[in-house]
Amino acid sequence: MLTGLAATLSRAGLLAFGVGAVVLVVGVGWRPVVRVALAPVLGTGVAMAGLVPSITADSPTVTTVAVAAVAALAGLGIGCLTATPRAVPIVPVVGVAVAVIAANTTSFGSRFTFDSPDRWDSIRAAWQLFTENPLTGVGPGLTRLVVERTRGGAGVYRYVHNEYLQVLTELGVIGGVLLVAFLVTVVRRLYRPRQDAYAFGVLAATAALVVHAGFDFVWHIPAIPLYLAALIGLALPYSPAEQEQTATSSPEKNTERSTT
């Protein structure tokens, strides 16, 4: 959630982070969250430092790739260091990250404004298509939206800044209903009484992405939904049949399964 906030530098990212943080604090309590927050905060600092060149530049360069590679290595190093009590060497790394971010604050100012004409134009274009094909939509794979701008000229957009409207435009009401059913199923499977902190963490990340999807096309960046899908798969409980089989299996089988 922290890295998503830092990477987008947007109001939607801030809102998504707030929702995810509330879910996490309600689920596991604020004390455990604060107690283990050091590593995620430091990792976010490194990730942000690596993202700065791509955020402030118009196109990727060799320098951009090099900075991203160095940030990845630094992130791995911080992960190893924070796994042990000897975490003091990370302080200089955080200092460098803060310095790099501070040096580019003027480039970030435009990210936190309430003026988003492109976002509203893409939403208007998608809504027009949806109203013309409300039941089944125009078909999957829509990557071109055209709308006449109120300030003159035509606007052409690849995706809508709203994943739910994108689904409605492509798949109509039928697809929208199926999407809601899928999300409700995932949340119900993740939320269960007396669940562990990991499951609540995945639930918080899911809530953040569900909220953020209402303002940006985050589902169209494959790494994001695939990463969340992997987390959800690890957090989901066994099915009733698997639980019954585990309960009735011998200790030797249980040991073998745990080792696997």
Number of helices: 13
Secondary structural class:
mainly alpha
Q: Spell out the helices and strands N to C.
A: HHHHHHHHEEHHHHH
Q: Strand share of the residues?
A: under 5%
Helical content, roughly? 55-70%
Question: Main β-sheet, in a few words?
Answer: 2 strands, antiparallel
Total beta strands: 2
Evaluate the radius of gyration.
22 Å
Mean pLDDT: 74
Quaternary status: single chain
In the sheet with the most strands, the strands line up as 1-2
Taking pLDDT < 50 over at least 5 consecutive residues as the criterion, the unreliable ranges are: 85-109, 250-260
Task: Offer a quick outline of the entry.
The protein has 260 residues and is mainly α. The chain is built from 13 helices and 2 strands, in the order H-H-H-H-H-H-H-H-E-E-H-H-H-H-H.
General description of the model:
This protein is mainly alpha-helical. It contains 13 helices and two strands. It has helices at 2-8, 11-28, 30-35, 38-56, 62-82, 90-103, 105-108, 117-132, 163-190, 197-212, 223-235, 240-248, 251-259, and strands at residues 145-148, 154-157. Strands 1-2 form a two-stranded antiparallel sheet. A hairpin with a 5-residue loop joins strand 1 and strand 2. Helix 2 (11-28) runs antiparallel to helix 10, helix 4 runs antiparallel to helix 5 (62-82) and helix 4 packs parallel to helix 6 (90-103). It starts with a helix and ends with a helix. The model is unreliable at 85-109 and 250-260 (pLDDT under 50).
Give the tags.
260 residues; mainly alpha; two-stranded antiparallel sheet; 13 helices; 69% helix; globular; disordered C terminus
